[in-house]
Amino acid sequence: MTLNPHALRRLVVFAVLAVGAFISVVPFYWMIVAATHSNDELFHSPPPFVPGGHLITNLKALEESIGFTRVMVNSLAVAVIYTLGSGLISAMAGYGLAKYRFRGRGLLLGLVLTTMMVPFQVLLVPLFQMMSNLGWVNSYQAVIVPFLANSFGIFLMRQAFLDFPDELIESARIDGSGDIRTFYRIVLPVVKPQLGALAIFTFMSQWNAFLWPLLMLNSEDKYTAPVALYTLVGGTHVDYSGLILGSFLATLPLMAIFFIFQKQFVSGLLGGAVKG
Amino acid sequence: MAVETVPPTANAGLAPQGRVRRRGRKSFRVVHWAFAGPAAALFVVFFAYPLCASFYQSFTNDSGGVQTWAGLAQYRRMLDDPIFWKSLYNTGLLLVFQVPLMIGLALVLASVLNNSWLRFKGTWRIAFFLPSITMLVAYAVVFRVLLKTDGGMMNQVLGWFGVSPVDWLNNPVWARVSLIGTITWRWTGYNAVILLAGLQAIPREQYEAAAIDGAGPWTTFRKVVVPQLRPVILFCSITSTIGTLQLFDENFVLTKGGPDNATMTPVLYLYKVGFDQMDFSYASAIAWAVVLIIGVLSVIQFRFFGSSERTAKDARATRSERGGK
Amino acid sequence: MSMRTSRRSALLAGFAALAVAATGGCATGGGKKAPAPTISSGAQAQVSGTVTIWSWDVAAKALKRLAPEFEAKHPGTKIDVVDIGYDNAYDKITVGLKSGSGLPDILQVEGPKMQSYIGTFPNGFYDLSTLAAQYKSQFNAAAWRTGSDDKGKVLALPWDIGPCGLFYRTDIFQQAGVDPASIKTWDDYVAAGVQIKEKTGKKLLVVDPTGDSTFGMMLQQEGQGYFKDGKVAVNTPEAVKAMTVMKQLSDKGLVDYEKGWDALVAATKDGKVATTPTAAWWSGTLTDEMKELQGKFSAMPLPAFTPGGIRTANNGGSLLSISAQSKNSATAWAFMQFALADSANQVSMLKNEGIFPAFDPALSDPYVTAPQDYYGGQTVFKTFADLAKDIQPVEYTGDYSKAGDLINDATTGVMQGGKDPKAALDSAAQQIASATGRQTVS
């Protein structure tokens, strides 16, 4: 039996997907391998290619060295609060920018644009100084508040609201609904996909944030997961098994969130017009 | 599409213009700012101030703990700094080779994923998306080990095919190749997922119409897919361009900019100047050069984008007409 | 109307207040202008309250271990050791120094970096001169130098040092028929390397192309750093000599290039190289991570440049300093004395955490002079303890890191790019001079 063009096409598609997926996933497979071996075994030559039996030992060591459960809870709290706060602020600002014309709107848009262009590294010192003047050093508000206004989120939400029909808002007003009431009763429910996409995006960025939390948090019991994991990188000794196990486990929640909400994520990113 | 310019008339009739005052709308005016206010306040306090501070700093010299006005000295120094120019050259290489490679691959993946008969789309999608959600620390460790010259997995596998070990991170040429490879690994899936969403927005009928006209897959791709997808491709290109100009994570964890600055980028360099060498004035000057370059490139791309916006709008209009049928 | 105005002005006022609070009137982001504070020995303030320390890795572990004993000795004190991780520790410390805020009482800083900090933030630390004077003769002179400024003002107390020697594989040497005692100069070393390579196929040493310490070690042997009297000195005849040795090692194919610490460890563990010219603390890595190689290592002094020349240098080593932002400097100083200027505690840190003391009295402890099983009964710690006295104090300056980056480029250029040592160093000297605004020596 010869392949008909249709089957051949499918074969090619599968081949492309399989190769692509393999390349994407193989480092994760290696993470599982590394996370289940002892540090010693990892540096044998050749390195191990299949999972080993040290998972439980490594887990215990990780819990003992950095309090893994605690830092995961910290990370979760920070990321959730940030996601909710920045979602609300982005939605409000996006709505304001899309549906109202007020003085300084152009300036605000310009400011939002510039934030995307400036390398964050250069703002670290002045921003740090502010946090310290506010007495916020070693607090979660220092990790969260400065980035609540998120330019990507504002752009995304503004785009969503630009597509929102003005007539609906106008008719709500005629019915006597106030602006704020109109916003959360009528407008917000419609942009749920975009809000969902934004939430995933901001959650991920906060979850993986490293440099700023490192600068801000000064006590080990307040560390977020990336900061705590980095303490495993010593000057002369790196606990690889712990590091890899920890970062692998810390990636799992993100995988789960993306897996569950991926439809909202992709359609939301493109303005809600897409049914994934 | 997160990036778009507002047509000035988009909201006419809803919001009162500028200073025009009307009776009965008093509270309404506070409300205008009430929505954008929190974001504006946050931006001004936590962004505008550090921004001004760094701008001022770029005109000073603060060696020995004393800050003095230095005029344009830091900027002049930058013009004579071979490492700065090398970092720009490296960025140029990435823009020319890595960004098109990645967008191209993402486009291929997205079109393949868009096949209607394909099953387990969600699983495929997450497989491709995984690299972009990896924690930096994991990324660092994994690639340092995979790309080790001796006993690294990459060279082990190449060895099975009789290829002699490649010095992935220590040879200037291979280090660049590794950097391109690892950036592509991390971000292709992310772009593919976005492009896929764009592809799915193209109505089935258009493909069918093309098929009826006797168009093959390539013609369909050129005549139907590319024009419709243009805004999304441009979105991906713009974000990737900005990402490349601000590249820091990947080369920081893989090569620290080496060997011989072959993988140095402006932002990694300003970080080194600021934090290793503690010369924050010069670091600020480099940062502002980066801002300027991104600004210019963005304006160019926005122009480009602005004209294509009409195409997208037309497409959307066509779509809603069909939908309304 | 008035309602709106008041609401708006209230908003404005609140916003302005927030802005002022946040920026704190410090418009320029400049460093601290106040002079370095001093702890006066006479009015010894009460030792009580909490002292916070930033440290990392085994050093943090050591301090955490010692803290309860101190707290018991001084009721009412609390020592809070925070492990800030090594990789980005200096980002955190630099930002704190630069912004003049957010630092703890005590900071761990490595020697060369301490010199950079002293150069850049001369007022960022407490002046310990008066209090520390009593200990000057008891600490290693080279280490002491890294904690003081050019005028001898003491800003940090040495903790540990890294006297360098040559670790070597006795079995490989034997197999190649090389007598370790015959290696007296770097030329001997290169010759031995060639013989080892011929006989066993093994390389001689690992070099990290992204940041290697070998060249700096050699320079220090010759009694200089990257700077001399404030001038760039990386192209002196001594420096060219050292770079020429690096070139020979590379030209003869004796170098195994490995990037980063783990690669160095792995290469050593796999027996790819016969020697490791490095500091005493390398011993901790050998005993921890290469238990199976027990009895196969030994150590000797570094090869010299001329027969009878200096056979060691310093690599690594930290200090503790009190940040100028500390509100409890008296207690901080008390703890530093307790941990560092105390033979028993220093020896306990060598025993438990492998930290090699910069406090001389600790080096005559029986634990240091005793034969060691791992090295087949040789007194390796004693070798290093003896070498420590020969370490030449060198000038680091605040521009050490800047110079280091450029020197590294030059080293890579010579070893892997085939550049001429003299030419590469001349060009590096020019670049360092223009980046730092300093003159060159020659």
Automatic annotation (TrEMBL), chain A:
Ranges where the ABC transmembrane type-1 domain occurs: 72-261
Keyword vocabulary terms for this entry: Cell membrane, Membrane, Transmembrane, Transmembrane helix, Transport
Primary subcellular site in the record, as a coarse category: membrane
Protein name: Carbohydrate ABC transporter permease
Record-linked Gene3D superfamilies: MetI-like
UniProt keyword Transport, yes or no: yes
Recorded family membership: Belongs to the binding-protein-dependent transport system permease family.
Residue stretches spanning the membrane: 12-32, 71-95, 107-128, 140-157, 195-215, 240-261
Compartment list: Cell membrane
Membrane topology, from the record: Multi-pass membrane protein
Keyword Nucleus: no
InterPro entries: MetI-like, MetI-like_sf
UniProt-listed Pfam families: BPD_transp_1 (PF00528)
From TrEMBL, chain B:
Highest taxon above the source species: Bacteria
InterPro entries: ABC_transporter_permease, MetI-like, MetI-like_sf
Membrane topology: Multi-pass membrane protein
Record flagged with keyword Nucleotide-binding: no
Residues annotated as domain ABC transmembrane type-1: 88-301
Transmembrane domains' residue ranges: 30-49, 88-114, 126-147, 280-300
Localization terms from the record: Cell membrane
Record Gene3D superfamilies: MetI-like
Record carries keyword Transmembrane helix: yes
Keyword terms, alphabetized: Cell membrane, Membrane, Transmembrane, Transmembrane helix, Transport
Major localization listed first in the record, in broad terms: membrane
Family the UniProt entry places it in: Belongs to the binding-protein-dependent transport system permease family.
Name of protein: Sugar ABC transporter permease
Protein source organism: Catenulispora subtropica
